[in-house]
Amino acid sequence: MNAEIIAIGAELLLGTTVDTNSAYVSRQLTACGLGVGRVTLVGDDPEQIAAAVREGLGRADLVICMGGLGPTLDDVTREGVALALGRPLEFHAALLEQIAARFAAMKREMPESNRRQAYVPAGARVIENPRGTAPGFIVEDEAGTVVVLPGVPYEMRYLCEHALIPYLREERGITTVILVKTLHATGLSESMIGELIADLMNQENPKVGISAKQARYELRMSVRAETYTEAEALLTATSSTLAERLGANLVGAEPLAATVVKLLAQRNLSLALHEATPVAPIFRAMTAVRGGADAIAGVVVHPLDQAADEDAAVALAHAGATNVLGRWRAELGLGAQPVSSPDPSGLTAVCVALVTPDGLVRQVTRRYDLRLPEGWDFVATLALDLMRRYLQGEQA
Hints:
- Residues 4-171 form the MoaB/Mog domain.
- This is CinA-like protein.
- This protein has helices at residues 10-14, 21-31, 46-59, 77-85, 93-105, 153-171, 190-196, 198-202, 228-246, 256-266, 281-287, 292-295, 310-327, 375-391, and strands at residues 2-8, 35-42, 62-66, 89-91, 119-121, 125-127, 136-141, 144-149, 177-186, 207-213, 216-225, 250-252, 271-275, 296-301, 332-338, 348-355, 361-368.
- By secondary structure, it is an alpha/beta fold.
């Protein structure tokens, strides 16, 4: 059984509301063994909703709609689904009584417009909503199954967990297990990683995919099996294969910054930073992680006050790391220094140096487009990965 999701609401198309509901439902469906093939955003228009439902049923066994079940005139999901399935809307007196009772419990008078919420397509199974006034419903049609849930997140989540998932498992016999695990990597380009694991990306089960962000990569593994134990075994085997293929470039199950903070804590080491930019990308990346601020003994932010070429940047990064190491008596000093101006291509050389109390120095220079807002994030990745490799014992 495969599924599609339709998120409904003009606010989603305008960008004033972010569609978090679809991500949540996708995770829930994946956990119970259903693959989600597509997520569609549709505005508050019954014809557009009907078209999206018909198209979804043409591809999938199950279509889940969310949103547009409120009492106002722009809440037209009921009409759209009914139109798609060629069914009239039917009034349910019992639903109206439940809605009225909820208003009475809140000691408020029910507006007449809430009567709209007591209509569902003919033959639909009503999903009562104890968290709000918008009931959901399930329509089992020869074209496929349509489940409609309210768009208010806490109402949707409750009905998903207490109605949708039980319906799929108990009545539709969905027993397959799908597990998803993410590993993190860096140090190689996305294309290089893709070449190393091309066979894993092409196979159906387990399936591996890559997402890239500022020279950090998420390797998502998804496996399908009949039991949890079988799925776990497949994940373990695939994780081992990735470790063999990527070697030291595989960070692990935690993101890069979290891994560095964890390694520092395990070895009871403190870190001092020297960053030659007000952006302070390394400090920013580390303090965004729980425990990151505790690992930093001190930080100096000292923008370049005179012209520096690449040789000077290397020397300044080294000197900065050495200075903060002694100033805060830390176990590790890390310095980041860009040259004073980009080269003709627009790229700026940045040197990162790591210094230890015994005088060991590791340094690396890369070129980035620092005109871009995310350019400094690449610098943070470079610095954190240099430190990770040292902390994990990789030889220079």
